Amino acid sequence: MQPRLHHPWPEDEAAALALQRQLAGQVERHDRLDDIRLVAGLDVAYDEHSDRLVAAAVVLDAHTLVVVEQAVAVDVARFPYIPGLFSFRELPPLVQALGRLSLRPDLIVCDGQGIAHPRRFGLACHVGLLFDVPSIGCGKTRLLGQHDQAGPERGDSTPLRDGDDIIGSALRTQRGIKPVYVSTGHRIALPTACHWITRLCSKYRLPETTRMADQLVRREMAAGLGGRKED
DNA sequence: GCGACAG
DNA sequence: ATCTTGTCGC
């Protein structure tokens, strides 16, 4: 699977901000979905002693949640971690990993925010837009916004608000467990996104997609501790 | 100026 | 993100 949209890579923070403001206008916040048969999960791991990043893309059967394909990529960080500019750090290796998939997923779940972002352009929006695939942001913590306490049952949620805007949901994916932050990435409405995340969190707090991707990047990081700088 | 701040 | 396995508690 290759990107369908290309844009110049920003050289500095100011260019990255300008690019986000421009691309944010192209994000689609409503459902424009095909039958969802394949769901991909993405994750990135960091090596604290070098500047290496390992990215993974794992494709699951959307019905059985069985892994059907996976790919990894190693890269060197080209952008520092700056809250709000997260995608410019993680996107390069993620694009490589996604490019190594033979299957084209019908939905992508990202570890981070979608439009629950200062400029409404989190990592999930960026990935979804580049590949023109419906995408969801599912973060473990909040970047922006306020919310009430979500109900205690699996599937309960409460709106995440930034002023008058509803930018996402705090979603309880297991009974009595701390909620996750769900937001539209691209081509999927918030309620639909919450349904899918709930479905993907079949046994744990986090979606199986991100869990599988997380396990893969960790294995890969451990396996490549003394070698490859990138690939 | 102070606090917040995805991974 | 990362340091980190078993262990205390409901």
Automatic annotation (TrEMBL):
Pfam families given in the database record: Endonuclease_5
Organism: Andreprevotia lacus DSM 23236
Residues engaged in binding Mg(2+): 43, 111
Native organism taxonomy: Bacteria, Pseudomonadati, Pseudomonadota, Betaproteobacteria, Neisseriales
Primary subcellular site in the record, as a coarse category: cytoplasm
Superkingdom: Bacteria
Localisation per UniProt entry: Cytoplasm
GO cellular component: cytoplasm
Family membership: Belongs to the endonuclease V family.
Recorded GO MF terms: deoxyribonuclease V activity; magnesium ion binding; RNA endonuclease activity producing 5'-phosphomonoesters, hydrolytic mechanism; single-stranded RNA binding
Function of the protein: DNA repair enzyme involved in the repair of deaminated bases. Selectively cleaves double-stranded DNA at the second phosphodiester bond 3' to a deoxyinosine leaving behind the intact lesion on the nicked DNA.
Protein name, entry field: Endonuclease V
GO BP terms in the entry: DNA repair
Keywords (A to Z) from UniProt: Cytoplasm, DNA damage, DNA repair, Endonuclease, Hydrolase, Magnesium, Metal-binding, Nuclease
Catalytic activity: Endonucleolytic cleavage at apurinic or apyrimidinic sites to products with a 5'-phosphate
Cofactor: Mg(2+)
EC numbers on record: 3.1.21.7
NCBIfam families in alphabetical order: PRK11617.1 (NF008629)
Residue(s) at site: Interaction with target DNA: 81
